[in-house]
Amino acid sequence: MALFDSVPLRDEARQQVASIGQADIVVGIPSYNNARTIGHVVKAVQAGLAKYFPRHKCVLVNSDGGSKDQTPAIVQQTGIDNLATILVRHPQFPVHKIVTGYHGIPGKGSAFRTIFAIAARLEAKACCVVDSDLRSITPEWIELLLDPTLDKGFDFVAPLYQRHKFDGTITNSIIYPLTRALYGQRIRQPIGGDFGFSGRLAEHYLSKNVWDTDVARFGIDIWMTTTAIGDGFKVCQSYLGAKLHDAKDPSADLTAMFTQVVGSVFGLMETYENAWSSINGSNEVPTFGFQYQVGLEPVRVNVDRMLENFRLGCRELTSIWEKILEPPCLTQLAEIAALEKGKFQFDDGLWVQTVYDFALAYHQRRLPDEHLLRSLIPLYLGRTASFVLEMMESSAEEVEARIEKLCLVYEKFKPDLLKRWRQ
Amino acid sequence: MKKFIHDVLWVPLQKLWWDFYDMMDNIIVMLLILLIGWIIGRIVRWALYHFLRLIHFDRFAHRFGFTEVLTRAGLQREPTAVLSGVVYYLLLFIFLLLGLHALESPALDALITQLFAYLPRLAAAVLILFAGYLLSAFVNRTVLIAAVNANLQFARALAVTAQSLVFIFFLAIGLEQAGIGQGIVIATFSILFGGAVLALALAFGIGGRDLARDILERHFGKHRQKPKHKSEHDEISHL
Fold this sequence. Notes:
The complex is a heterodimer of chains A (423) and B (239).
Chain A: H1 11-20, E1 25-31, H2 38-52, E2 58-64, H3 71-77, E3 96-101, H4 108-121, E4 126-129, H5 139-151, E5 156-162, H6 169-183, E6 195-198, H7 199-206, H8 220-230, E7 235-242, H9 250-271, H10 273-277, E8 287-288, H11 303-316, H12 318-321, H13 327-337, H14 348-363, H15 369-374, H16 377-391, H17 396-421
Parallel strand pairs in A: 1-2, 1-4, 2-3, 5-7, 7-8
Antiparallel strand pairs in A: 4-6, 5-6
Chain B: H1 2-54, H2 57-63, H3 66-72, H4 79-102, H5 106-149, H6 155-178, H7 182-207, H8 209-220
Helix pairs in contact in B: 1-4, 5-6, 6-7, 7-8
């Protein structure tokens, strides 16, 4: 039985796949109630495919989580009225569309699994996935995500964006530095959400039995990146420009996002222990695309609320943190919790020690996973508040240099993590 | 005088000796049962200890709060040793009862029968209380972390209240199972639980009107409520 046979597809999708037969490129768009933005994304994808891959047989797959706002209908109806305005050469094949729901746990990961299965059935050479809430996607994104796999022999293309200095705080404070220190590859946006990958890698993803874990939800992005690195696939990144997406209330989803993403990273540390334990330092990965400066929308941050949450955590969660953190770490946390806002500083060493202690506690199963991961949130907010206060007047370049400094601390402390991991 | 001593002292002593002599077989059987029980207990304790070590029981026990329960109870030993010790003494106790039964004393038999009849209820009650303790501690931690993440200043009070309610619930079931003051326990629990729920409802309704309105509007309102002040709103995209 082929790997993709293990993934159930809806009847209409199976029929469409059968009628298409084979494709060179599959572009996946997971969605859930994205009627407001998905039309633009579909147009950009269609234009990108027509403009940059006119001689390839392309399929656009919308894997929808049961939207109630006509999202799938919009995908079906959206097309480019006049291709001649953007094309030099008329495409040889029309872009096929498959609009389908998915089976399994509701979440982005399950939506991706259906896209992987369709790509595998169609024997696609190159695939990419893009978020359905993007406002800044252009046709060039499609070229930048697909071309390295089609023409340059890469298996995985991570995105590289220009983001506001206070955007992507989980990425900047945990996911990027930790992934980089562990696996030695400087992939700047490991959970960017818009990825390119080869058909070979799509099949490899399908071979993993992870679809009833957090990978089926927000954990999918870091899982894709880590699996590609950990299993020795050739990885690169492409500069896509600004990442602007539909406004939502991030604080409402923070707990779920945080626990699923960080839990996935910690879980993957166990899966790929052999891959990361022998690595020291880190290396640049090949980067494609012309890098340029773009204007970014301002981001409002409520530092007071974050600090309040951190201090509340220090007051109430110490009995839980005692099971996770080393005593010097606890002492330092108590000390900084007493500082007033103007002097508040959650330094790099303390933060990295905190993250590593939590990773070890997760590894040693000292607490139920949900308790452990959720109790890290006040500390994360404290660290974010400190970062925002420190970087309030800094430029984007200065912030990037500051993140680089943090990464080096993660790399410096890694031998100690490894020593304790093996005890 | 000689006859008196013979009748009053010697005959009863002789009778006692013959009674004891008649029971000697039973006593030997009892001692044999105790010896077998002790040997089996030691073997089971050794096997269980090593099996639990093999499956990393201590790690699970730590994770689910069992170690914490032991520490609070003043037991500093590892859970693996405690559990295998409990099983050992339980086996000794069972073999002791079997040994006493072998004496074939009607009075002891009646007592043992009663004890055996009560044991399952007692064991069930202990298990219920233990499960209640573990679950209530778990609830405490869950509520505490959730409340802190929701930035509720009364997080600790909320967690302790939730834990107490869960434990009282299990205590009532456990005591009822043990047959202790059934009517009073149920009545007390009903009053306490009902009172607590009513108090919470009133507190939430009166004290937390704004919060209640926010939650209801958030879930059922057509438009989500906007923050009162612009500065209260975060626009950070964490991922």
